[in-house]
Amino acid sequence: MAPFVYINGVPFAMYSVMAIFGIIFVVILGLCKRKAFSLRKRDVLRIVAWALFGALVGARLFSVIGKMIQHSGEPGFWTVERWTQILLNSGLVFYGGLIGAVGAAMLRAKIGHIDLKSVFNFAAYTVFAFLPFGRAGCYCAGCCYGIELAGGTNFPVQLVEAGYCFLMLLVFLIMRPERRWPGVPLFPVTIIIYSVGRFILEFLRGDANRGHLWVFSTSQWIAFALIALAVVWLIKNKNTQNREDLSCESNH
Hints:
This protein has 252 residues and is mainly alpha-helical. Helices cover 72% and strands 5% of the residues.
């Protein structure tokens, strides 16, 4: 692990450095595939900028909510001093960042009159493009670590998740599902693939304050909810297509 990298003696947090690399990679990917997504260059740049802001707000908000759920019953929790510490020191929660990024991207699409399907197809790639860098940053920072192994080391669950996401990105780039299955919305497919992997990897997480309800962690319950929503999304899309096909047949 290397929490900081030093440039001319100035320390830079490796998590932030890796996140910047991830954002740059997302922009490059979006610009290279913008025609497949039916997006203009300026659309890609604006969507990424808005999604980044939404991700930061959502990730921090979910972290604060998590602390409220875990510690709200403790004495002194609702004091100004405690809340100042919470707001300044809360970390970032991926699922919160994902929801915030999607919400901000949708708002940008509405304002800019951009086709939502194009935005969601771009977002499907973006999740797998950014996370390898984000989780590598977690590994460098020493957060989100895995269960303790023999010898006192921790299972590198961050790097496993990074590798899983990078592999899924390669599969998408090779198969080009936006062309192979143009009628299938890609974003819910990405959500299902990621959430299943995340649900399994949660059993290998060893960091404290995971938040548990019964036998599952908070992230696993969120994964359940997102999978359910994604499945409903796909079913509704399929039903809509079937109705459109029947309408076309009747017109002919």
